Amino acid sequence: MDRFDRIFELNRILQAARHPVSRQRLQEALECSRATVTRLIEDMRLYLNAPIVYDRDHNGYTYDLADGAMYELPGLWFNASELHALLTVQQLLTSVEPGLLDPHLKPLQKRIGDLLELQRPGFDGLSARVRIMQVGARRGGRHFQAVAGALARHQRLWIRYFNRGDDRHSDREVSPQRLTYYRDNWYLDAWCHLREGLRTFALDAIEAARPLSTTALSVADEDLDRHFAVSYGIFAGTPRQTAVLRFSAERARWVAKEQWHRDQSGQFLEDGRYELRIPYSNALELTMDVLRYGPDVEVVEPTVLRDLVRERLAAALARYG
């Protein structure tokens, strides 16, 4: 029985006992020494706020509770793997937008660290040994908090937006729906009142932002999922076509394990190549991903995507004469 199990068992014994429980009985039930029982009781008092008291008249331990009351272990109580995952998430949030959530995360991080050390001594400080490396990340911009605040308060937002695709600026009124962290960058999914439709805005391209007093238009979750989550990548919309990609036998060892889209399907071919089928609506991002694999991938269908990839490869080759 390890420390974690002993705490649960100690709590169960004290809850079920009608009279104070002696230290000797706790030693036998928990299969440990007198010193270990003492440490467990002190840990529960210190870290879990357990109202354990020693009753001298009965020479035993009990919970000091009002009539009818019952002590329960805190809700924030996880197994070791769950605690490790929380520490990893904390590091991800900090690296994504440093300082944004520090006032809220630091007390939670300390609490998690205390529980982790209590349950599995020696594992404290795991977050310092976990690395999350970002490539091509763009900071959320100086208006991150204004956007997040409007989203939390269900307010409309005025923004000045720079569209890098056509090199134009525009002023828009939007109703924030979701913040999305995708491929190391932040995006705002919102209802655009200028275009009268759902749009995605890169936060680093928002040059000015001001919350408005008007209540934001709410879009149902199922409609957001239908628009933003069904198709390929961040460029959402109803899938209009399905891409058929064939990867070389060597590259197949990696691609077969990758999740490109929630509705993708794939199979190994007789010659060892891997065929991947992906629904998509906008060819831009998909083309960029295909180009990453160079000669290790072939676009089989549709013809329009195959031609687009061929044109981009030819243009790239032309750069080198």
TrEMBL record:
Domain Helix-turn-helix type as annotated: residue spans: 9-61
Name of protein: Helix-turn-helix type 11 domain protein
Residue intervals of the WCX domain: 240-317
Boundaries of every WYL domain copy: 143-210
Gene3D superfamilies per record: Winged helix-like DNA-binding domain superfamily/Winged helix DNA-binding domain
Organism name: Thiocapsa marina 5811
Source superkingdom: Bacteria
Source lineage: Bacteria, Pseudomonadati, Pseudomonadota, Gammaproteobacteria, Chromatiales
